[in-house]
Specification:
The protein has about 240 residues and is of the alpha/beta class. It has 6 helices and 10 strands.
């Protein structure tokens, strides 16, 4: 096994975006592709590491870009400013993630009939919105994602299987938001799961998260359990 990576430029509405592809060059045929949607800080080493881990697990990982080439946020104020326009224009958010997944599917290393997407924090909302559009992907998985419903997809059937991995004590997504998402997914006919981890805050998969006052902290048990849940989910939906 030798994991290879390359950066892929693509564009939407005149803006250039930059994704990061990881694959095992020992593969003799195209492999299932799994897009990785980033947090509110933009594509970083965290998401690229997840793409590499997916490649090591037998998939092609693609850390996508929602903000534009080289755009990153530092600190809560900058990061919030980056996601606010996309939260206000969900059609644009959906178009961007759809474009990124399409670009992933075009790569020679990827089996375009077997695609999935995962996302972290803002990226969790991003992949849920991909599913909300009725996109032809096998599954989406949200890690400590935002659950805000999108008004422009009401009445659209969800074809992707959905897995949400959630910290029950995440102040950004309180229990009533979990119930609302369950109702939304059921109404859309989705095959869905929501795993809630007790005594767990936002950003529980990120070892660098250590701000309980803000509501974000790494949790080693929830990280391990959610990683296993993702493994089982991808094995099912991408078989």
């Amino acid at each position: 096994m030798s994991i290879q990576t390359r950066v892929i430029e693509y564009s939407h509405a005149g803006v250039t975006y930059e994704g990061f592809l990881a694959w095992d060059d020992a593969a003799t045929q195209p492999l299932p592709g799994v897009a990785v949607a980033h947090t509110w800080a933009g594509r970083s080493e965290f998401e690229q590491g997840k793409a590499v881990a997916l490649a090591e697990a037998g998939y092609v990982g693609f850390a996508l870009d929602m903000f534009g080439r080289g755009v990153r946020g530092e600190g809560a104020e900058q990061c919030q400013a980056l996601i606010t326009p996309l939260l206000a224009d969900r059609a644009l958010l959906q178009a961007l993630v759809g474009k990124a997944v399409a670009v992933m599917g075009e790569q020679a290393e990827v089996d375009a009939t077997r695609l999935a997407a995962i996302g972290y924090c803002f990226g969790g909302l991003t992949v849920l919105d991909l599913a909300r559009t009725g996109a032809d992907v096998r599954g989406v998985a949200s890690f400590h994602g935002l659950f805000n419903a999108a008004e422009n997809t009401v009445g659209t059937a969800i074809r992707a299987k959905v897995l949400c991995l959630h910290g029950y004590d995440d102040p950004m997504v309180p229990p009533n938001a979990v119930v609302a998402l369950a109702a939304e997914l059921s109404a859309a006919g989705a095959d869905w799961q929501i795993h809630a981890y007790g005594n767990t805050l936002h950003a529980f998969t990120n070892p660098a998260a250590n701000d309980p006052a803000f509501g974000a902290a790494y949790n080693v048990d929830a990280d391990r359990r959610s990683a296993q849940a993702l493994h089982d989910f991808l094995r099912e939906v991408l078989a």
